[in-house]
Amino acid sequence: LLLLLVSLLTTITKAKAFSRCEPAHVLQEEGLDGYGGYSLASRLCVAFNESIFNTAAQSIEADGGADYSIFQISSQLWCIDDRSPSDNHCRMACRDLLLSNVTGDIICAKRIVRNPQGMNAWEGWAMHCKGQELSEWVEGCDL
């Protein structure tokens, strides 16, 4: 029990819940603004609707797969975990997406957007962001 508690606390301390402008600066520095034809505001809208900007966010899907981190990246397609078989297109362990450093998330998100689905790969995009005015997501962030 103590080992489990220490493990959980270690995971929690390595994760981060961002405020709105924090990921805006990080994603801009990492070249996501305009990448694949999508604005920085688009990325923020997706990240908020997928995870509320929480790098530790995990959700288990009905089909046995799981989604991870700020962009809720699918274990069945993009990263590998011990829950389900994976195509692992991003060539990474899903647990690496749960860190406060979102570099792996960004690399994988770029790979996902290069896919023919583009941003439509994210339900949060289709349901909450696509076709909407998104400038509020970067408003006041001093970019």
From TrEMBL:
Write one Gene Ontology MF term: lysozyme activity
User: What cellular component terms from Gene Ontology apply here?
Assistant: extracellular region
Where is the protein localized? Secreted
Give a yes or no for keyword Lipid metabolism in this entry. Answer: no
Per UniProt, the enzyme's principal EC class comes to hydrolase
> Where is the signal peptide, in residue numbers?
1-17
- Catalytic reaction(s) noted: Hydrolysis of (1->4)-beta-linkages between N-acetylmuramic acid and N-acetyl-D-glucosamine residues in a peptidoglycan and between N-acetyl-D-glucosamine residues in chitodextrins
Indicate the transmembrane segments per the record.
none
Q: Which UniProt keywords apply?
A: Antimicrobial, Bacteriolytic enzyme, Disulfide bond, Glycosidase, Hydrolase, Secreted, Signal
According to the UniProt entry, what is the EC number of this protein?
3.2.1.17
User: What InterPro entries has UniProt attached to this entry?
Assistant: Glyco_hydro_22, Glyco_hydro_22_lys, Lysozyme-like_dom_sf
Q: One biological-process term from Gene Ontology?
A: defense response to bacterium
Q: What SUPFAM superfamilies does the record tag this protein with?
A: Lysozyme-like
Q: Which PANTHER family match?
A: LYSOZYME C (PTHR11407:SF63)
User: What is stated as this protein's family in its record?
Assistant: Belongs to the glycosyl hydrolase 22 family.
Q: In its UniProt entry, what is this protein called? A: lysozyme
- Organism, by scientific name, is Haliaeetus albicilla
- Organism classification: Eukaryota, Metazoa, Chordata, Craniata, Vertebrata
